[in-house]
Amino acid sequence: MTCRHPTHLARAVLAAATLAGLLAPGSLAAQPAATDGDGAHRGYLAARLAGGDLEVLDARNADGRFVPASVLKVATVAAALEHLGPDYRWVTRLTSVAPVDGPLLDGDLVIEAGADPTWGRDGEEDAPGTLARQVRERGLTRIAGDLVVDAGRFPGRLHPLDRGIGDLAYRHGTPPAALAIDEATITVRAAPGASVGAPARIEAPAGVELINRTATVGPDRHGAGTLDFLALWGTDTLLVRGEYPISEPSFVVPASDPDPVRRAGLRLRDALAEAGVQVDGAVRLRTERPAASGSAASGSATVLAELRSPPLGSLLPDLLTDSHNWYADMLALTIGLEVAGTGRFDDGVGVVSEFVSGLVDGAATPVPTLDEVWLEDGSGLSPANLVTPSAVVRLLAHAASRPWGGALIDALATPGEGTLRSWPRLPPVAAKTGTLRHTVALAGVLRPRSATPVFFCYFVNHRPGPPAPARREISAALREWSGRIVSEE
Fold first, then answer.
1. What are the residues whose beta carbons fall under 8 Å from the beta carbon of 171, sequence distance 6 or more?
2. What is the pLDDT of residues 46-103, one digit of tens each?
3. Are residues 67 and 212 in the same domain?
4. Would you say the C-alpha torsion 319, 320, 324, 330 has a positive or negative sign?
């Protein structure tokens, strides 16, 4: 990956900036906020490198706990790069312990799911088709047993308990999965019924059972009618409820797949058939953790096909410039497997939390960050996540000192790019946005091309209404900080 930013930043941070005393008494230069009367909860910290130390440029409530929204993705990505590295690739294998007799596999073909988030990603190869062709190239034309999707390495709940129907039901909030195509979503078409009182017309892909609890209402409800989509996880059933004004047009929505693992298995069976490989049995799911003696890694199973994803580093713009929730939560799930060793989503989130909390100061003494980080997911979609501005700034400074730091900073959005497209005028900056209901946030590196870049984090919580006023407030602060630096140079 080509880095957009020169080496000034890396050279400065590699000077081993001391983080101890970052918020020492008397070092703050907080500016009064013109919006203090709006009742919002706000906090920020801007610190620059000076003589190898981080010097506070401006701060307010920097040790307060805030909902970070998608700023949290910086922590998830940094933890993944630290533990997995930018060259990490997800691996999906087709294996079997059954004997191969010429063109016949006399037993089950097993898909060893690897939580690869890139299946169906734009510009990537057809993953099921690639695996199917590898099986056919081995000379196989018939599978006498079942096609078994082994998701046992990823047990437990795959999303935070507080993620609501308004998020879980749609592409932006789909929970991670051991195996999934097109981000574990299905295309659902909806239109009003033929007359008032009739159910709305709902169309879903073949194999999805629909429970239609909708009603078509009169045009007087135009703009007020709503439909809810609720995936009944693991049942292949989608519940749709609510009312649809007859005056509203039809629409198409990418809804969460209620059974993404099984549907990916069905797609692979179709791909095998297209490649000339017949599967006699059914597609079935295996959720128990595999015994060590029965895994491909142990050598007792034969690997019949293998697919490796693009490297993690190639996904960083999706994660940070475009703020992709699916990739971030899948990354947390992957960390749960590769680092925690359990394959549990919560444990992956725990590794990210420990990574941020475990950063040390220049004297190698643990920084007391127990109350600075409270995480529930990897994407920042949960409103229960809590982080302090000082923890984020410390994380950014640490990340920039690591070998992978250039790749992370390069993937942050710049003015007019990605999620910064809707922001007002900004000075030179590489940053990650965060937006939830009543929450706006921005964190990153101000003046990244300068010899003394500024690491910053700015949170505005509990401010109802559209995000534009909070964005203007943060942008004005960045311009003020930038102007102060220029005047001192």
1. 183, 185, 254, 255, 256, 326
2. 999 776 678 999 999 999 999 999 999 999 999 999 999 999 999 999 999 999 999 9
3. no
4. positive
- The residue count for the chain: 489
Which of 248, 264, 270 lies closest to 181, judged by CA? 264
Instruction: Let me know whether 211 and 349 are in one domain.
Output: no
- The set of residues, in sequence order, having a beta carbon less than 8 Å from that of 144 and lying 6+ positions away, is 98, 104, 105, 106, 107, 280, 281
Q: 3-state SS of 208-258?
A: CEEEEEEEEECHHHCCCCCEEEEEECCCCEEEEEEEEECCCCCEEEEEECC
User: Would residue 169 count as lying in a domain?
Assistant: yes
Whether residue 432 sits in one domain with residue 337: yes
pLDDT, tens digit, 9 for 90 and up, residues 208-246: 999 999 999 999 988 877 899 998 887 889 999 999 999
Q: Are residues 41 and 120 in the same domain?
A: no
Assess whether 317 and 374 both reside in one domain: yes
Confirm if 336 and 346 have CB atoms less than 8 A apart: yes
pLDDT value at 3 more than 80: no
Residue matched to tokens 């907080």: 30
**Structural domain boundaries enclosing 475:** 8-87+313-488
CA end-to-end span of the chain: 32
Other residues' Cβ atoms within 10 Å of the Cβ of residue 85: 13
Counting the structural domains of the chain, the total is: 3
